[in-house]
Design goal:
Layout: E1 56-63, E2 69-71, E3 83-91, E4 97-105, E5 110-117, E6 120-127, E7 131-134, E8 150-156, E9 160-165, E10 168-174, E11 187-189, E12 201-210, E13 232-236, E14 245-246, E15 256-258, E16 270-275, H1 286-290, E17 297-301, E18 305-309, H2 318-324, E19 340-342, E20 355-360
Antiparallel strand pairs: 1-12, 1-16, 2-11, 2-15, 3-8, 3-12, 4-5, 4-11, 5-6, 6-7, 8-9, 9-10, 12-13, 14-15, 17-18, 18-20, 19-20
C-alpha cells in the first residue's frame, strides 16, 4: 500500500544519537585556561644559570667618631721582623689621620700601624726609640679619594718599608734593619689603641697580618678573600654579618669583638653588605698615579699608559716619575732610551712645547 510510510527510514525530527554532541567540550584536549606544568614558569629564576647577578658580602662600617674592632693582644701578632698589614677599605672621609689597623703605643714607642694621613697611606713601625715610616715625607704617594674601594698594604722586609695602593707602589723608605718593639696593647681595627685614636671613617672588609713581606713590587690585587697560610698571624674576613664578635680565620688569636664591650654600644661599627671583591672598581686614574710630580698636567689617559706634561722647571725626570709608581717609561712614541719627549707625543704636542712623559699603567 503506497499510502503507508516506509518505517525503515529514520525520523529526521529526532536527533541522531550516534553523533557526538558538539555542545560538550572534548575532554581529550587540555583546558587552555590551566598552565602547562611541563613548561618552566618564566617568573621563577633560572637556578641553572651561571649569571646570578651582583655578588655581595658583609663588612663593617666605621662612623669616624668612636667605632672600632678590638682584638686581644697575643704573641702571634707581636711581630718583630718582616711584616705585611693589608686590608680592603672604602673611606668616606680622608681628612686628618684615620687608623686602619693599629697594634702600637707611639708614646713608648712600640708596635706598628697602618693609617691614612690626609688621604695618603702610611705604614709605621716603632723600634723602642723612635718611628720609621713610609712615606718618609708627608703628602707623598698616591692620594686616596673618599667613596672609592682600595686594597691597601704596608710591608717591611727587614730593610725597606713600602706602602701599596691597589697593587701600585705608593711610597718606600729604606730604613735599614730594625726590630719592631713588642707592645702590650690590644690590636684595633678602625682606631689607634691610645689617644689620639684617629678613628677611621668608612668601610673595612678583610684584614690580614702576616710575618712576611708579601709584596716587593707592583702586583695584581687578589680577586678573592685573603687566604690563610703558614705566614698568616691574623685573618679577619668580617663575614659574620651580625653579632658582637669577629672570627680570626687563622686560628692564632682569640676572636675579636665590636666596640668597647661584649654588649652593643655606640663604639660598635655597623654590619653592611658590600660588593664582592671582583665587582669593585679599583682602577686608578692617571691623576691618582702621577699627580704627585711637580708641574704635572694630564694630556691623555689610555688603558695602558698615561701621557702628561711636566713644566720646564720640573724637579723630577720622567724616568723617576714612572719608577716611583713601579712602572716603566713607555717607548711607544719612538724614543728607545728614556721617556722624555719634546713635543713628540700624540696628544701633548698640540698643547705644549716642552717635556712630555708617557708612563705605562
Amino acid at each position: 500500500d503506497t499510502a503507508q510510510p516506509d518505517t525503515t527510514v529514520p525520523d529526521a525530527t529526532q536527533p541522531d544519537t550516534t553523533v557526538a554532541d558538539t555542545a560538550q567540550p572534548d575532554t581529550t584536549v587540555p583546558d587552555a585556561t590551566q598552565p602547562d606544568t611541563t613548561v618552566a614558569d618564566a617568573a621563577q629564576p633560572d637556578t641553572a644559570s651561571p649569571d646570578a647577578g651582583p655578588c655581595f658580602n658583609s663588612a663593617l662600617f666605621f662612623d669616624g667618631t668612636d667605632d672600632y674592632v678590638h682584638v686581644p693582644d697575643d704573641n702571634d701578632i707581636d711581630i718583630n721582623g718582616p711584616i705585611t698589614i693589608e686590608a680592603w677599605i672604602r673611606p668616606t672621609d680622608v681628612s686628618g689621620e684615620r687608623a686602619i689597623v693599629a697594634h702600637s703605643n707611639p708614646n713608648y714607642p712600640n708596635g706598628y700601624q697602618l693609617l691614612l694621613s690626609d688621604g695618603y697611606l702610611r705604614f709605621q713601625i716603632y723600634n723602642g726609640s723612635g718611628v720609621h715610616q713610609a712615606p718618609s715625607v708627608d703628602g707623598t704617594g698616591i692620594l686616596l679619594q673618599a667613596g672609592r674601594w682600595y686594597h691597601v698594604a704596608g710591608t717591611y722586609d727587614s730593610e725597606t718599608l713600602k706602602v701599596f695602593v691597589n697593587g701600585y707602589l705608593s711610597a718606600s723608605n729604606d730604613c735599614g734593619a730594625q726590630t719592631i718593639s713588642t707592645t702590650g696593647q690590644a690590636l684595633r681595627v678602625g682606631a689607634r689603641t691610645v689617644s689620639p685614636y684617629s678613628y677611621f671613617a668608612g668601610t673595612i672588609d678583610e684584614v690580614r697580618i702576616s710575618a712576611v713581606a708579601r709584596y716587593q713590587a707592583n702586583f695584581v690585587v687578589p680577586a678573592a678573600p685573603f687566604a690563610d697560610d703558614q705566614d698568616t698571624r691574623l685573618l679577619l674576613h668580617f663575614d659574620e654579618g651580625s653579632g658582637q664578635s669577629v672570627d680570626d680565620a687563622s686560628g692564632n688569636v682569640s676572636d675579636g669583638r665590636l666596640g668597647s664591650g661584649s654588649g652593643s654600644d655606640s663604639a660598635d661599627p655597623a654590619w653592611v653588605q658590600v660588593p664582592c671583591i671582583p665587582d669593585r672598581d679599583i682602577a686608578l686614574s692617571c691623576d691618582e698615579l702621577f699627580s704627585f710630580a711637580p708641574g704635572y698636567e694630564l694630556c691623555a689617559e689610555r688603558s695602558d699608559e698615561c701621557e702628561f706634561y711636566l713644566s720646564s722647571g720640573k724637579t723630577m725626570s720622567c724616568t723617576t716619575v714612572c719608577k716611583q709608581r713601579g712602572t716603566d717609561c713607555n717607548t711607544a712614541h719612538g724614543n728607545t732610551t728614556h721617556c722624555d719627549y719634546s713635543a713628540s707625543a700624540v696628544d701633548c704636542d698640540t698643547l705644549y712645547d716642552d717635556i712630555i712623559c708617557v708612563c705605562a699603567r
